[in-house]
Amino acid sequence: MSSTELPSAPAASALPKVATVRVAEGERLRSVGLPGITLSVRSRPPAREGLSPALHVHGLGGSSQNWSALMAQLEGDVDSEAVDLPGFGDSPPPDDGDYSITAHARAVIRYLDASDRGPVHLLGNSLGGAVTTRVAAVRPDLVRTLTLVSPALPEIRVQRTAVPTALLAVPGVTALFTRFTQGWTAEQRVRGVMNLCYGDPGRATPEGFRNAVEEMERRLQLPYFWDAMTRSARGLVNAYTLGGQHALWRQAERVLAPTLLIYGGRDQLVGHRMSQRAARTFRDSRLVSLPEAGHVAMMEYPDLVAREFRDLLAQTGEPVAESVAGTGADAARGAAAGDGGAVTENAGS
Fold first, then answer.
1. CA neighbours closer than 13 Å in the CB half-sphere of residue 63
2. Angle of helix 186-197 versus helix 206-220 axis, rounded to 10
3. Ramachandran region of residue 223, left (φ > 0), alpha (ψ -120 to 50) or beta?
4. Distance between first and last Cα of the chain
5. Where does this protein have compositionally biased stretches of type Low complexity (predicted)?
6. Where are the alpha helices (DSSP H) in the chain?
7. Which of 124, 185, 262, 283 could disulfide-link 132, Cβ–Cβ 3.0 to 4.6 Å?
8. Of 332, 331, 265, which Cα lies nearest the Cα of 292?
9. Per-residue model confidence (pLDDT) at position 341
10. Residue 320 has pLDDT above 80, yes or no
């Protein structure tokens, strides 16, 4: 494995505009070369030595930046890294053009094997939730705990608001969409994404919105942006149709790691009704509902997600930061509904 650290603040003249990637204060970004893929890995140095490693995996159209707020919350609890899946964020496309769930899971496994960081606390959102479920099922030796935020697991009745995203998998639809939206500005696109993914788009700060627009402008210039989106959406839809031992729900049954399930009550992409099935399927699970959250609770309510994650750590015997020890799920469940109001609904058997 070869690794090259990327500068956090390159001179404007040193890199082409399309290559500029935002790195938050306290974060590092490096490029890791592996067989068939090159991955961009975002990390945040832990507050102290000896903390357990954690790896965060983003969803469709996202990047490692989606985890920056949560990583900052958890710097006293785990040694966090977040990966850009092939074709997303600052990771180039895979050499073989394979964007299936299995290929994305293979990329995560290759990185964990090469970095020798496992077993890790593995966290996934949306598409990343499906990917990390597969990783936990096929390589239990690499996973200490599994945290899934609105995981994209198969639904029989897809929400109407999720249909446009699923249609990206249909041949020709992406080309039609790109022509239809040719005149849209980056600001319009970001507002559309936030309206779809946030329970309350107003929770995005002005700075966060500007950063998202800047990232959208950068990614729209990438020649493979729409191809990565389309093929990954197709890979997710194809995974929904798999049967037997490769079926995602069947693999969820095989997960041995203690699992934290977080679902948003205002999620327009993953039906909240699927939370109960998830709680029944993952054998050692705890289900938490955030009534006011949308599809990306770790971005909307990073403090509540962090508290629930610390509670998971405590339940598995992992140390948590002294400044927050004991807050855990009880504090989250005691929060006002207007602040996300975490509610533990159910536990897997």
1. 24
2. 120
3. alpha
4. 39
5. 325-336
6. 68-73, 101-115, 127-138, 163-167, 173-180, 186-197, 206-220, 225-241, 248-254, 274-281, 297-300, 302-315, 328-333
7. 124
8. 265
9. 63
10. no
pLDDT of 335 reads: 36
Tokens of 205: 């700060």
Structure tokens belonging to residue 229: 């989106």
Strands 285-290 and 343-347: antiparallel
Instruction: Tell me the C-alpha distance between 308 and 333, whole Å.
Output: 9
Cα–Cα distance for residue pair 81/40, rounded to 1 Å: 10
Distance CA 56, CA 45 (A): 14
Q: Exposed, middle or buried: residue 349 (CB in 10 Å: 0-12, 13-18, 19+)?
A: exposed
Quick one: average pLDDT of 149-169?
63
- Which residue ranges form the domains of the chain, and what is each CATH number? 2-347 (3.40.50.1820)
Is residue 271 within 8 Å of residue 157, measured between CB atoms? yes
Q: Are 232 and 107 in contact (CB under 8 A)?
A: no
Residue 291 to residue 16: CA distance in whole angstroms: 42
What is the three-class DSSP state of 292? coil
